[in-house]
Amino acid sequence: MKAILNGRIVAPGGVRSGVLLFEGGKIKEIADRVPEGAEIIDAQGNYVSPGFIDIHVHGAGNADFMDNTAEAYLTVARTHARYGTTLLFPTTLTCTSRDRISA
Q1: Is the CB of residue 40 less than 8 Å from the CB of residue 3?
Q2: 2-48 sits in which CATH class?
Q3: Which residues contact 30 (CB under 8 A, 6 or more apart)?
Q4: Over the stretch 11-46, which tens digit does the pLDDT of each residue have?
Q5: How many angstroms separate the Cα of 79 from the Cα of each of 57, 75, 96?
Q6: Which of 3, 14, 17, 95 has a CB 3.0–4.6 Å from the CB of 38, allowing a cystine?
């Protein structure tokens, strides 16, 4: 089990303090103290939250889903993951190649 200390925990109902406990990539609970044997991570006053879900995204990292390449898709995914997005829904638009080039 891992324990995150000294963070501002984003939880239902608002931001709170406490010890965020997680295991196997899943949040277990927000506790008052660190359980014996837990690996400690110091959040150093930063916000701690579950992963974000972006339900409308065209791109990121100077890439767009309309680029229509695996490299562009991976660039978008890696960029979002870097900033806390754990799930995203690619969004495209209708346009001709000519429209895309002039945009």
Answers
A1: yes
A2: mainly beta
A3: 9, 11, 16, 18, 19, 20, 21
A4: 989 999 999 999 998 899 999 999 999 999 999 999
A5: 12, 6, 26
A6: 3
| Continuous H helices in the chain | 70-82, 97-102
Query: In degrees rounded to 5, what are phi and psi of residue 10?
Result: -85, 115
Residues of the chain within CATH 2.30.40.10 domain(s) are 2-48
| CA nearest to 92, candidates 68, 74, 69 | 68
Reduce the DSSP state of residue 27 to 3 states and report it: strand
Confidence (pTM) = 0.63
For tokens 């008052």, the residue is: 32
Write phi, then psi, for 33 (nearest 5 degrees): -145, 165
| Angstrom distance (rounded) from CA 75 to CA 64 | 9
Answer whether 92's CB lies under 8 Å from 64's CB: no
